[in-house]
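Chapter review: from sequence to fold.
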Amino acid sequence: MAVVARLPRPDDFAPPPTAADLRRWDEADAAALPKRIAALRAHMAGEGVDALLLTSHADARYFTGMRFGPNDEPTAGSSGWTLVTADRLAILVDSRYTVQARHEAPQAEAIDYGSDAGAAVGTWVARGGARRLALDPHTIRHAVWERIAATTPGVELLAARGWGVQLRATKEAAEIERIAAACAVADRALAGLLPQIRPGTTEAALAWSLERAMREGGAEALAFDVAALAGGNAALPHGNPGERALRAGEVILFDFGAQVAGYRSDMTRTLFLGEPSAEDREIYLRVLRGQSAAIELLQGAISDHATALPSGRAADEAARAAIGSVAGVYDHGLGHGIGLQTHESPSLSRGAATDPLPSPTVFSVEPGIYIEERIGVRIEDLVAVDLAAGRLERLTRFPSDPIVLG
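The token string follows.
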């Protein structure tokens, strides 16, 4: 098994973004807002809808510029709900966010909803004369839905799921730059952690060191909590690090991501602590072949100047075929879109649509093999594809070839 000849170092990867980068990205977002809203309104018109309620903070930032931090999600209530018609734009806020909305989303009407979000939505929609309101029953409590209905007599409420995230699946150049910057933060952090990975170190200690390295190395936040899982714990696809100490001859799996200027990264690396057994080497190589096969399928479409990318389902099928019929092949999806949220459209999985993947876009490719209580191997990279530009780029630059420590 060919292993990485030289361990990666932090300075192998791009430095953190500068203040000028952050200003440039802010300016790009401000310039893109009218186009984003126009695309959303065109989608509404195509669906025969004249009012839309979006409830995610990612949609609020994308369509209005209003920024919510990671800690806002569980405590913000209905603040950030966004209302759109053909000629009006509004955002729900409570007293904690009114000043912020005035500064960050000046083009949107800020609605202080008090203690009754349903009535605030219904009143605003009815006042504008809308006849058909689209909203997502998966994100709105039944009582709030009923309250909206009660305050919008004569307005038809239509179930609509994911209209915002569908549009966000196609990425602008400045969005891809930020995802790449978040990837570089994560790459540097793991490279700096390598000397600490040795027998006796605990999963929790490594997870904390990795989190600290990202926060001190350019991340404004984590994309999600760090996973550092040793030996048999690595067979838990979304396990939590604990006080288990690393042992020679086993693997350590890291799943982690940084957030830079609102945009996120997501990577997984499985490292060997000491020379692996022949069986463990083969597991790793099967996973690597699966990832390579999916990426090669996409690269082939670009190299052949195809008119469309393969589907997410086809990419998943290519990975599984390359891995082969062995025990423990992943049951999760091959990959997911990423951007303002860690999991976005498009999906790469057995249940994904058979439509071509959007372009330009960014998604993960993360096959794995998990042998219960013994070993887990997953390799995850973020990939940017742009069919029109004829480009496929791995945004995750940390080596995916096997790394043996010690």
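Two observations follow directly from the output. The chain has two domains: 10-18+170-405, 48-159. Residues 77 and 94 are 9 Å apart (CA to CA).
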